[in-house]
């Protein structure tokens, strides 16, 4: 149970922060950048939800919850000591990735195949979902960078990879099933 009754603690005034296991690290540490970017993504998802119809809004609400799970996973560096922890850390699991894949397949079934790259835009919702896609890709890059230096749950990285795909397909669906996609025309302005 999380209890937040005092928002500022002054604990980070010197430029460090506490991880989920209590260790203190610099606020610009790779781990903090990775879970901080997943939090940024969560905020963009919240903006996208303002434009979303009911079914997409429900899917985005699930994703927002998953992103908090992801942040909880990434803020715990001691994966090898999970079994010893007083409170078992929350880790991303394969079923979260599987759900995204199922939803991608369902959305993609109604879309015509692409014959060009898609430019971000079209409807307001699609534009917001493309922003989410690019921030998800950045979060993935940061998680991969972190994983090169420290242990990271591989499912967390896989989730971010699939999530950016989800946002891409959802953006196409939001563009009138792809009919409103803005297609790239190579060299159009030469």
TrEMBL record:
Keywords: ATP-binding, Cobalamin biosynthesis, Cytoplasm, Nucleotide-binding, Transferase. It comes from the Bacteria. GO terms for cellular component: cytoplasm. It is an enzyme of class 2 (transferase). InterPro entries: CblAdoTrfase-like (IPR016030), CblAdoTrfase-like_sf (IPR036451), PduO-typ (IPR029499). Pathway: Cofactor biosynthesis; adenosylcobalamin biosynthesis; adenosylcobalamin from cob(II)yrinate a,c-diamide: step 2/7. GO terms for molecular function: ATP binding; corrinoid adenosyltransferase activity. It catalyses: 2 cob(II)yrinate a,c diamide + reduced [electron-transfer flavoprotein] + 2 ATP = 2 adenosylcob(III)yrinate a,c-diamide + 2 triphosphate + oxidized [electron-transfer flavoprotein] + 3 H(+); 2 cob(II)alamin + reduced [electron-transfer flavoprotein] + 2 ATP = 2 adenosylcob(III)alamin + 2 triphosphate + oxidized [electron-transfer flavoprotein] + 3 H(+). The keyword Nucleotide-binding applies. Transmembrane segments: none annotated. Residues 7-173 form the Cobalamin adenosyltransferase-like domain. It is found in: Cytoplasm. Its EC number is 2.5.1.17. GO terms for biological process: cobalamin biosynthetic process. Belongs to the Cob(I)alamin adenosyltransferase family. This is Corrinoid adenosyltransferase.
